[in-house]
Amino acid sequence: MTNSTIAIPGDKQKSTSVFTLNDFNSRSNLTEKAQLSDDYCTADHRDPAKSQTSMAALMHFLKSSLGTGILAMPMAFKNAGLVFGLFATMVLGFLCSHCIHILAKTSQQVCKDIKVPALGFAETVEKVFENGPKRLRSWSKFAKLFVDIGLMCTYYATGCVYMVFIATSFHDVINYDTGLDWDIRTYIAMTVIPFLLIGQIRSLKLLTPFSVIANIFIVITFSIVLYDLFSAPFVFSDKVLIAKPTQLPLYFATAIFSMEGIGTVMPIENSMKKPQQFLGCPSVLNIAMTIVISLFVIVGFFGYERYGDGILGSVTLNLAEGTFLGDSAKLLMALAIALTFGIVFYVPSEILWKLINHKFNERYHNITQIILRTAIILIIGALAAAIPNLEPFISLVGAIFFSLLGIFIPSVTETIYLWPNRLGCCKWKLCKNIFLGVFAMCALVAGATASISEIIEMYK
């Protein structure tokens, strides 16, 4: 929680605005200055000492989007086919970008309406319901809690995926090069140790250096992966162009998981010195998503073309074992994902703490947070050890959580905020959001069903 005190000329007393720049559950109080202002600018009421530049925000956005997901895109193309996957990935990237845009835009507009410096994801949904149609106002607390719980489940589950990915990478390299025969669960247990330290960082600004280093590692890894992909002649004749309809739900579930970074959007926007630069053209969002979608298409298309049906949950795991480039790519990507764990773990932990901190004596808040974060990381490690297989787990997380939070909730939120007279000519925004909502529900049901069936079959 950040306390910023703003002095108003002519007043004998200072007015205090209390808000958190970086989490989803900040409680932002109106300031006298804000209430007196006709043209409220959120940037003027944020603490510059605890804000970050647009470049730092871009680094965080790229890092949160370019995790294990992009490495799973060749597997997504396997379930889509080359042609369908190519066009579907570009369309899905546009839809995800649009949903991020409408969420951030709605949040900024609500901030100006109620004159607060920043609102998190859950807060934005809550305020929209509170000021929406009368029949929906009583649902505001439930809507906020729903988003909070959804975000916690999403990012803790993503932490499990990260842990399995890192452990698998080290398992493949070390076991092959040294002749050891350690089980994957041994490496998961070893991965928990650095996570216990990184997971104690509670400031998004302090995580910026980690994102920069991780991005450097990712660039090197992508260079190695692309070199490997283009090192042999392409053979398209044996590749599926359009997959069977029964495989498409797995494609959408994996692709949505890979692209969606909805949970980190509002913390990043809330922490910017110039939040107006998050949207617009050019903007942090446009630049980041253009880079992300381009890389997703390239890695997915050529990754599947190179390895075909033998593609694994992460394309780096298909690199030749025992070679310098192959081992370097696996280890560098594993380290990049480890450095990313801080921002992924930051999101749900801040949500959970805001929900329960009032239950503990303020003197013990620090030690309580340390114990709580440690316990959660140990639980994540136990879950990762229970399901040490990336493919179906990635699809399941994407199908359930990212379909809801990344597509369904933003479209519903924008509709309620604009209701009833600001939905555009012939209410085209309403029609657009109905389409997004139906698409999200179809992706959720079909993707979850296919993923669960695959997990059951795997454990048979």
From TrEMBL:
Residues 53-448 form the Amino acid transporter transmembrane domain. GO terms for molecular function: L-amino acid transmembrane transporter activity. The chain crosses the membrane at residues 56-77, 83-104, 145-164, 184-201, 213-236, 248-266, 278-304, 331-349, 370-387, 393-413, 434-456. It holds the Pfam family Aa_trans. It comes from the Eukaryota. InterPro entries: AA_transpt_TM (IPR013057). It is found in: Membrane. The keyword Manganese does not apply. Keywords: Membrane, Transmembrane, Transmembrane helix. It is a multi-pass membrane protein. The keyword tRNA processing does not apply. GO terms for cellular component: vacuolar membrane. PANTHER family: AMINO ACID TRANSPORTER, GH04538P. This is (Mediterranean fruit fly) hypothetical protein. It comes from Ceratitis capitata.
